[in-house]
Amino acid sequence: MTTTKTRRAPRRTAEERAEEAKLLHDRLTTQVAALADSDAWKSFLRLSGVARNRSLNNQLLILSQLPTATICLGYRQWEQLGRHVIKGQKSLSIFGFSRKTVTETDEESGEENTRSWNRYPILRVFDISQTEGDDLPVTLLEGDDDAGIFDRVAEVLRGRGWDVALEEIATPGLNGYTRYDTRAVRVNVALSPAQRAKTLLHEAGHATLHTPEDTATPIAHRGQIETEAESVAYALGSMLGIDTSAWSIGYVASWSDGDVDLIRATAANVQRAVADLGDALLGEKPIGAALAG
What does pTM read for this prediction? Predict the structure, then answer.
């Protein structure tokens, strides 16, 4: 885990913030490109797909055994990521899935008959909290929000008609979400204050830039909007006094598949949202004023 404290950022003019937003976006692009080229990241992407794709039943099984669980992988999978299960930790049980197919030949007719059936073997996994070793490329922030970033961002969003609240979110790995139909923004109450602030910055990016139609599009476009929202969190977080790179770089790399051209293509939208939210948060625009367009 990365321990982070938010701090009050120095005052800057709108022009200075615009230039800083551009430089931060360029820096993020460079860092993502470097990470995406590493063998460690490619290994993480392969294995994290296992954690992301847990069925609802397995998610509920995991939470019933360890309510604080986030990323769960098998013993060998953790070892491949440079982490090791702590001695004495009890594994969590989930159901695996495989389909067995057998072809049998009738001795009299010579005809082949194929039978298939599903199998659900019990698998053993461990949560990241039960392991120790190398940091993962995507690391939750730990620490305080002394600068009150969460409350400041929440005030701006509420002034624009959004219902912002903390909530117990049961889905493993889901730190927050934005619902456009009810104009609701929720952040997981179980997160540290620093991570809550970062997550709300991400959701503010969605609320400022995106529409219900964006979230219903194919996964390739979803990668673009997630890249935009997290890039907003990274740049705006830096301006407000919180370093989100421990989470943001890996998150953007994951959703963009390390595609530098895709990240660069989001620059105009990211800078537009950062300028708008930055003005509101730093008092140069009425809190209730929304981004035009």
Answer: 0.66
